[in-house]
Protein: GNAT family N-acetyltransferase
Organism: Faecalibacterium wellingii
Amino acid sequence: MSKITIRPMEPEDWDAVSRIYLEGIATEHATFQTTCPPYAAWDASHTKDCRLVLLVDDVIAGWTALHRVDPRWCYRGVAEVSIYVGEQFRGHGLGCHLLAELCRQAEEAGYWTLQSTVLQDNAASRALHTKCGFRLVGRRERIARDCHGRWLDTFLMERRAAADEPEGYKKL
């Protein structure tokens, strides 16, 4: 039996986190990104709270983080989810553990809406988000081109906090 642990992401985790991110990029259905940014750029674009890594037997197997969708005060409780599981760890339900913990911590931190943009070819991600309480709120048709120039749709999925005003919303 493998030991599964979820803990806050540390800057020292970046080598493993970026490797997993690059594995996601290589699938061509996890993100429109084609390169992994340096840590400083990634760090600046994600919230400082709710950054998690999932370890299997002390090896980082996945990560998740939030990105604010809008800097305006009225949207302070709305964030977009990034979640990636390493290639060798996919298909074992680890993403569900990680996303469920992110949702729990996000509510504790005061986020009232989490959203995720899922590329049309990523059925596994749509299923994961649905299993963790996200619902489909829209489909954006031909929203962007992939690295081969092919137009792709994205699905916008959303999860609302259980309470309209989660415990920590005033500190956001």
Notes: The chain has one domain: 4-171. The chain has a mean pLDDT of 92. Residues 94-109 form the longest helix (16 residues). The CA atoms of residues 52 and 68 lie 16 Å apart.
